[in-house]
Design brief:
Tachylectin-2, Chain A; four-stranded antiparallel sheet
Length: 204
């Protein structure tokens, strides 16, 4: 399992991993965070390349996906995440770590950024699948501070450049936050959450 968190309860978030003991069936309990030789929580990747765009605000919202990269002619395993150059509260862009076969490697620049007025200069909470020859991404735009969250969608051939026009997937009044797609046979299920951070009575 890959998850974001603060090892000491403060500072820039990072992406960590946790594992169940070998042979244990999938369970909600029993996970053990992976640690280094000194017993400290070990981030899955360094920031030697990505610090300029995710160094101060940290890494948030990891989403694992495996897809075909036509630029390299091979399958790629990636952990997409939201990163901020400024602080924990954004604004955010979206990039990824890529598996080299031995380690997760960070990227020198993000792969996806806000370019529409309705995105309010910040995109985060990426959730991706690779399907039908496309890297498909759902994501949140806006911010909790503004009490404005809109869900967007875009797709691309290589998952790093040439994304399609950013489309509104769910309007702000729906308050959709996470949106996770999972294949079930020939169909797909979407699991999502809604949040309410404004004044007044929450919607149903």
């Amino acid at each position: 399992m890959y998850l974001a968190g603060q090892a000491d309860g403060y500072g820039a978030t990072d992406i960590y991993s946790a594992s169940l003991p070998p042979g244990v069936p999938l369970s909600a309990i029993g996970w053990r965070p992976n640690r280094d030789a000194a017993g400290k929580l070990a981030p899955v990747a360094g920031r030697s390349l990505s610090r300029a765009w995710d160094g101060n605000g940290g890494r948030h919202c990891p989403s694992f996906v495996k897809g075909w990269d036509p630029t390299t002619g091979r399958w790629s395993e990636r952990i997409y995440y939201a990163g901020s150059a400024d602080n924990l509260w954004g604004p955010y862009t979206i990039g990824f770590l890529q598996w080299s076969g031995d380690a997760w490697i960070d990227s020198p620049e993000p792969a996806f950024a806000a370019n529409e007025e309705w995105e309010h200069r910040s995109v985060y909470e990426p959730n991706l699948i690779y399907h039908d020859g496309k890297w498909k991404m759902w994501y949140v735009a806006g911010s909790n501070q503004e009490d404005y969250l809109v869900h967007g969608y875009a797709e691309g051939d290589d998952g790093r450049t040439g994304w399609s026009k950013h489309l509104v997937f769910a309007p702000p009044e729906m308050k959709m936050f996470d949106f996770c797609v999972r294949q079930l046979g020939d169909a797909f299920d979407a699991i999502f959450s809604r949040v309410w951070v404004g004044a007044g009575t929450p919607p149903p």
